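Render this sequence as a predicted structure.
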Amino acid sequence: MKKSLIYIFILLSVMACLDDKSNYDYKDLNDFENWERNGVSNVAGSYTLYPGEEILLEPKVRFSIDTLNPDASYAWYLGEEEEMTLLSDQLNYTYKADQIGKFTLLFCATDNKTNVTFTKELTVSVVASWKNGWMILSRSAGNESQLSMILSKKQSISEIVDGKEVSRDTVVYVGENINVVPSLGRGPRKLVENFIYPTAIGMQVEDEVMVLQESGPVELDGNELTPVGYARNEFFDGIPDRFDPVDAVLTFDGKWLLNSDNYIYMANLSVAIDLHSGFYLKDPSLNGKKVKTLLPYYKGEDNYLIVGIDENNTYFGIVNDGECIYNTTDYVIGPLNNVGACAEFREDYENDLLKEVKGDFIFHAWANEANYYTPPAYFSILDQDGVYLWHYYELDYREENDKFRLMEEGSESGQIPASIMVDYKCMALFPWHEWLLVASSDRLHFYDYWENRIINLSSFPHFNSEIVGLAVKDYDSYYGTVNAHLAVALKSGEVYVFEVKYDSELEVMELVELYHKDGFGEIVDIEYKFGQGNKPGASSMY
């Protein structure tokens, strides 16, 4: 719509000039199509800034005629057409990031001979420096928890494709902050990111980070990474004996802490944009059910089921169907929900990969976007006496005679080649590409589990220490326009970030190094911080 209005304005201006007896011949007018193609350079279509940063915009203008010394006037505007504010009437302009948000800048160049105005639109995203990036949880020499961040920004770059210069967005890593939260706690264990209601609008802080540690879980503001909640302070009727959470599943309508004694403590939230609007109960949830494992919860969007494995090595589900009251403006979660109810298989259900499973689970990951129409898909690795089985499965639930029954909607399985499991250290999954990444000592192995083949690397990165952690920022690959990013953490305290480029014709993987830094200490966990609930499955990179 905006471009159409500009076209109409230009057309009317040109017609007015042609009607003027003193104006110019049509062939001497500056050409708008040429402007679209070559008219302005040296400025990108989008920028990402941190609060307080400045950027000098110095466009180079080239009209189709009068190219060297155009008789032109310039202006910069802020906002959409209906509410534009003049920022400057000079060619160059320095933009300062004063507040968080996404802003539209409009650069205007007016040909003074014809009063025809040509425009270029820019988008500036101002984000908190710790909004997106890689989080590293480390242990100091004194067993203190240290949280560090690798900082990232979106940047437009130019590439030559089929002989033509094209612009594409990518992510660049611009530095790191080490130990950003003083006196965080002791005995680091794990990082878990949580999000507010995914459709909440106008919220500056859209996520929180829980740090699980021996001294007790602490939740951090998603922008400032300052403490905003302690689990010990959120119990309604006193802290349980031997309270020692080792894992957590967090959603916008509930929190589940898995204790070291295999009990679960649950907080039922009441406001979907206030992740501390509820409280935990002292008595274990699920009627005291003993639980060995809580599977990773899909990050963002709606997921109506949480999956776990009980002490009998049998899968179960926790209903997570909280919804905001229709047309609400305060995001209150409606009371007619079953959040926290347990869903189990029928007594006659038989599946040796889901019920009374033989073997030891060594890996779990979410494997697709879960929503109202698609059950959550998970990916697990089972070690059966040195034979490693992978299992891709979809689980759902239904209400039946006042009970909730867990159901399997789909399942695929296979065996992982033994050659890539020698000296196994850790794994990661690329959910949108259906790749499994296995770290064996200081080597990486890519495995396409759907096609049952090992993917060759064009060159092997050489690490001087064994791998202790992997994390992936994958993208919805439907359009195939972006590549996943991979973070590799080493025992030496180093972290690498790679772009993962796959040549489908040659069936070869290339790892392009984007970042490398040491000094992170004894790394316990590494995770990508999405910063927003609709990002994990998005096709955009940032």
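Summary. Residues 465 and 492 are 6 Å apart (CA to CA). The first strand starts at residue 40 and ends at 41.
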